[in-house]
Design goal:
With about 350 residues, this protein is an alpha/beta fold. It is about 40% helix and about 20% strand. The radius of gyration is 20 Å and the shape is globular. The protein binds ribulose-1,5-diphosphate (RUB).
């Protein structure tokens, strides 16, 4: 049993330590989670974020509950319900909690079984993202060969790297793999207002890996596509419905529209546990998280003295609205890059993945 991953790890005493993503790219702080409430809080306040990692912290949160409540099943269930409700859109959260509870239904060693299962989920995610990287990179090589390209420009939105899913990312996994294969890539990084996950987190990851990239204001992608400067768009997802409609960070839909208009391939990279097989129609049925309007009014950054501070960028008194996600309809998606291969975004292809376990 290990439980050590890039954005989170189990300490020797069984506490979960996570990178506190709210301070990146300025400071690499960590936060220790000791209880189910700590896990819940960390998901809510976005200490941790990204569908995959939210699922992992939820799973370890159930373990923390088991430890805290001395394997009392009723109390574990109560804490699990609280964790399950901490954010509404990323389905990995509900999937992970449900799997943990199902696993301990007949357990006689609840605390250790919880720990083992949370680690098993995380280990599977590591494998999933490696496979996604390989299949996604095969796709990059194919598009490059078809179009006789020497360098490859990919646009991505939000952060779907290893900060978001263990341990290679979803959308960023093909980029990490491309670097390993010696492919000359360059990444356009959408800043991703209002929380700037692209500008703060994706750029931080890519810089650390030495992958060439350029941060762009969210409104720039369409212009770049019109001028042939984007060869492919890859984003992650928080939930993909059985009909292929995909929920991802607000603004993804607009990129997909621009990609369609300009004949740019638009791919979503996701592990199978991001599918919601019971959701028939994503545009109609996926719940979109509403977040505080303060995230629109306020911006965090480093001032010239090197201090991190939060400043207001809107007039006091103006109202703002903050939808966390939007839905890209399946008709705008070229393909879904999963650990089982690249599939079409339609019900027939998606339902074939239901119940499959992670390849080894
Ligand atoms: C994150 C987001 C990411 C997906 C990636 O939103 O939209 O693109 O979660 O999924 P937030 P994965 O920052 O609000 O959590 O974790 O599978 O890469």
């Amino acid at each position: 049993m290990q439980g050590i991953y890039k954005p989170l790890w189990l300490k020797n005493n069984g506490d979960l330590e996570v990178i506190d993503q709210r301070y990146l790219p300025f400071e690499k702080k960590t936060r220790v989670l000791k209880t189910a409430s700590d896990a819940c809080e960390a998901i809510k306040d976005m200490t941790v974020r990204g569908a995959g990692v939210i699922g992992n912290v939820a799973a370890f949160g159930v373990y923390l509950a088991a430890r805290e409540f001395d394997a009392d099943i009723a109390k574990i269930k109560e804490a699990s319900a609280m964790i399950r409700a901490s954010r509404p859109t990323a389905v990995n959260l509900m999937w992970a909690v449900d799997r943990m509870l199902a696993h301990i239904r007949h357990s006689s060693d609840v605390v250790n079984d919880c720990k083992r299962e949370a680690i098993a989920i995380a280990d599977e995610d590591v494998l999933r993202t490696q496979k996604i990287g390989a299949f996604g990179c095969d796709m990059i090589e194919q598009i490059m060969a078809d179009n006789k390209l020497k360098t490859f420009n990919i646009l991505t939105h939000c952060n779907a790297g290893w900060l978001a899913i263990l341990d290679s990312g979803s959308a960023l996994a093909p980029m990490y793999e491309a670097q390993k294969r010696g492919i000359d890539i360059h990444v356009w990084v959408d800043e991703t207002r209002p929380r700037n996950q692209g500008a703060s987190l994706t750029s931080w990851e890519l810089l650390d890996a030495g992958i060439p990239h350029t941060i762009i204001p969210d409104n720039t992608g369409g212009h770049l596509m019109q001028h042939g400067q984007v060869d492919m768009v890859i984003t992650g997802a928080d939930r993909v419905a059985a009909n292929g409609d995909a929920a991802n960070k607000i603004g993804t839909y607009l990129k997909a529209l621009a990609a369609k208009d300009n004949g740019v391939p638009f791919y979503i990279a996701l592990p199978i546990n991001t599918f919601d097989f019971d959701c028939e129609n994503g545009v109609r049925d996926i719940e979109i998280e509403m977040r505080s309007e303060d995230e629109v009014h306020m911006m965090q950054g480093m001032n010239k003295r090197g201090d991190v501070e939060c400043v207001r960028i809107t007039p006091e008194g103006s109202k703002a609205i903050n939808y966390g996600f939007d839905i890209t309809p399946a008709r705008l998606i070229t393909g879904l890059i999963t650990e089982m291969g690249v599939i079409s975004p339609n019900k027939e292809a998606i339902l074939k993945l239901k119940g499959l376990s992670t390849p080894t």
